[in-house]
# Entry
Amino acid sequence: MVTRRARKGYGPRGTTFTELKAKDFADLIKNDLNDEIDANLNGFVRSVVNDLSNIGTGANSVSVSPVLTGFFASSWKASNTYIARTDKIKDFPRWNKIKKGNRKGFRDRLKPGFRPLIAPRHPVPTNFKVNQPVYIGNTVKYAPYALLSPKSNINAYLQGGATGVFSKSLNQKIDRFFTDKRPDIRVGAEPQGSKIGYLRQ
# Structure
């Protein structure tokens, strides 16, 4: 026997079929919007890693990461988990063979005939979600010292206070990737941990 509720067109939990269709439509829009935000987040993460790796730096721009051998700039990584600092340059022949000066006052320079090599070592994933933490950090053991180098523009990049020829800033990038609906992004830098954390609250 058909109940009165069913004859009147009521669905689960007392909703009408029309209301169900409206809810399905709203869910579809919400899912599409979330997909768009996730795509923006993944583009944002890749762009930040490229900046920190000094990839695509224009002729009138200053590098974000300090460069000597290029090992530090090549070692930025994005992940859903904390970035561990474990890599030593001596274990990577491509960079270890780049010889630095050994005289006092010349240790921050390369020997004649050697050039830095910037070749990112960690592919950037494309499956980040706005409801998950994303960490961008450097995997080299000496990362805290590189962050404090006079050649480093990382703090200026993070704080968005750079002027002059240094045109990159994280705030500008956030505005470019999240123009409409944007996740709540909190940025923090830890010199000892060499990480930049992005969290959606």
